[in-house]
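cache lookup: miss for this entity combination. No prior model stored, computing from scratch. Input as submitted by user K.M.:
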Amino acid sequence: MKLATIANGSADGKLVIVSIDGELYLDASETAPTLQAALERWDDIQEPLASLTARLVAGEGAPLDLARLAAPLPRAWQWLDGSAYTSHGALMQKAFDLPPIETDLPLMYQGLSHQFLGPYEDVPLPSESDGIDFEGEFGVITDVVPMGITPADALARIKLIVQLNDWSLRVIAPVEMKTGFGWIQAKPACSVAPFALTPDELGGAWRDGRVCLDLAVDWNGMRFGNPNGAPMAFGFHELIAHAARTRSLPAGTIIGSGTVSNPGYREVGSSCIAERRGIEIVDHGAPRTGFMRFGERVRMEARLPDGALAFGAIDQRVVRAEASHD
Amino acid sequence: MKLATIANGSADGKLVIVSIDGELYLDASETAPTLQAALERWDDIQEPLASLTARLVAGEGAPLDLARLAAPLPRAWQWLDGSAYTSHGALMQKAFDLPPIETDLPLMYQGLSHQFLGPYEDVPLPSESDGIDFEGEFGVITDVVPMGITPADALARIKLIVQLNDWSLRVIAPVEMKTGFGWIQAKPACSVAPFALTPDELGGAWRDGRVCLDLAVDWNGMRFGNPNGAPMAFGFHELIAHAARTRSLPAGTIIGSGTVSNPGYREVGSSCIAERRGIEIVDHGAPRTGFMRFGERVRMEARLPDGALAFGAIDQRVVRAEASHD
């Protein structure tokens, strides 16, 4: 099942269900007005959603205008982002001469969740000198998760899978990281690809709580990276159990994988600029690639084995934020 | 103006307006069903709220049953907690032999905001061995804050002031802090005192964006600390401007002061156990005070110059979380 949210001026938008080819949609708002509402009574709405799916399969539905789509969850009660690809962390450590991170547990920070940008929205940021970088990621959305859940039980709490861009400001990030308090200024709002998929739609590419698809990242129309989502040190179910050790998670919690990265990053490329700069530092003693400039674009997409886009595409540009003082 | 939320089974509860002595209340839900809704159109509802206030002053209202109160915002879109008392940080650094935190900027982390416990609710936590500690704090609630706001403009975005307990698990905290990613497991849901006050209710005790009141903390009925809120290194308006440099803040954002601490902590005591343990480490080489046990209580309250409770009191006990697996 493929769900999306049409921007309609309200904070949470309107829930629609989309045909597997992404061409047609049916209004699902009689079943649940918003995706958040759907996640809050997920089990109860599976039957009406299945009826809508059957109608889409039968060829019903209106043509979907991608430009009208918001993020599947335009806001969420919680966004917890992991950093589960060890090849990324190891390279960053080597390139920037950082001390090793002393933990056997998953790495995770809590980010802003009151705003997720849509896949084609401009991304307003205050300054190029902050080091504007993209981070291509996969993520999952849960329903309610009780405190103390096991990884095995957590797998069943994963209701939807998404693809996202965890925007990062690289000049600020190390300064904030050194405080130990995590990131505030270094992590503005994330962007999310159009479609949230139930795990079954990924077939064999969803295994061990991991999204085993390539994530193709293009910067200004040039291929920048195409790493696969498989080699997470911890699966999403383990990230959920980690997060829920001392808290319950509300329906609509989004958990991110961290920047997708593969040990073969020299061949497959990277899903963030910082990683390429890390390789350049290792090879040449200094980075050669700059960060993003206002007006530049990034596109991210993942394709299923049959070549179809799984989550649709993120395709957007960064722009200078308007001075918006009172 | 004194606002509170009566638990009514819904996620956000019901908004009420309370007499200044805390004895009587009027239903405010025709003006705004919830405090979150009130904050989203704050300017528009000042007139109806003033009418309700006038009726309370005239002696109208039903007796307020404190036991029915939830946190003023039982959930919020964003909770950002500072650490603005330098005497606390300096002591922790000395006692635990930590490297100095290299920043001139405010310290701040993003915590879970999908759940704020009411002032008398039991606090369920999984294990005493995590090092259960309270942290008495003051906080502010904003309406919408645009990205890039100045500290001067941010002052006017502070609509309400609250008092809260930022529960901390001290065995986990340093482990997570070392990762640089901030805290997930070490920071379960916070508790909030009954009443959210407009700044004018504090009179001269609200100055320079600081709550200049003593915060009395009792642990199991014994006075533990009574530090004053004044000596923040950054005022709340500066914390807001810091938070909003690369993001806008939604209405209902809660910003915390961090553990209230005074340079004279040996005389006035502390608002968290970790600080007392820090003093013991400095004095004796090892801590003598243990952390909280299940069944133990903490009470926190701040009084106005006339002796009246400003925010009501937090008075609650920690309990073992039920194993709540599926």
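stored under new cache key. The CA atoms of residues 24 and 123 of chain A lie 27 Å apart.
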